[in-house]
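Honest question from a wet-lab person: if I give you the sequences of every part of a complex, can you actually get the arrangement of the whole thing, not just the pieces? Trying it with mine:
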Amino acid sequence: MDINGRELSKKIKNEIKDEVDKLDKKPGLAVVLVGENPASKVYVRHKEKACQKVGYFSKKIVLQDNTSEEELLTLIDELNNDNLIHGILVQLPLPKHIDSDKVISSINPNKDVDGFHPLNMGKLMIGQKTIISCTPKGIIELIKSTKIDMNGKNAVVIGRSNIVGKPIALLLLQNNATVTMCHSRTKNLKKHCLDADIIVAAVGIPNFVKEDMVKKDCVIIDVGINRLDDGTLAGDVDYKTVHDKVSFITPVPGGVGPMTIASLMRNTLECYKIIEGIE
Ligand code: GUN
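Yes, you can. This is the full assembly:
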């Protein structure tokens, strides 16, 4: 059965809108895009549209590919000090001449809607309340929506990125799953996957997870958004063959993607409350 990320995302955005309608001051999100990455442009457009839907003030700043690191750091400093802005998102990847770690670390941790700042990542590591990065946060909601009990379940995460793999492994662990992290150097990946009750695939290779790698009745979360030569989108999981074998699977598109955006809207409201001293 499909897990409908679009529907869940809509429900969350409606809840946020109801809350935002009651606020005197609008939450504000700044989205910074550097360069011409086509996928990034699409993601940024989705983020802006979501802001309009929930009633946020959104500020999109598009910088040229040859923008210097110093210029970007100056912009972030301005946004850190801007009273209308509660969340700052710098779309990744950045051009090669810019040090992403330095840029992320320059964002006020209380405005870090991505949850990528080392302070927020560190808090996640030790289980303190913090801003949690959007895709992993959305994935946990998708799993919870199936009503399966994560307690003691075998969860396999394929991919070890800072954006998805590492934080989702920590969140699954917080939910008492037994977590195995697999990656490009993992030996006998198939064996690990066949043991899994939950698989989170975040490898960036189209149709990588095949039907013979998954256990019957497994829950599959497909984080991949791979553009094929014919222009269509494919996930990291071979949806057509895997779908009938498993209990739940997120489709691509319409699964994880919309929930990433919904989580971003949630995080922006959380940052707003911190910055404005509400609650
Ligand atoms: N690029 C791909 N995913 C993300 C994300 O969640 N946040 C940002 N800032 N950039 C990304």
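Two things worth pointing out. The mean pLDDT is 97. DSSP finds ten helices and ten strands in the chain.
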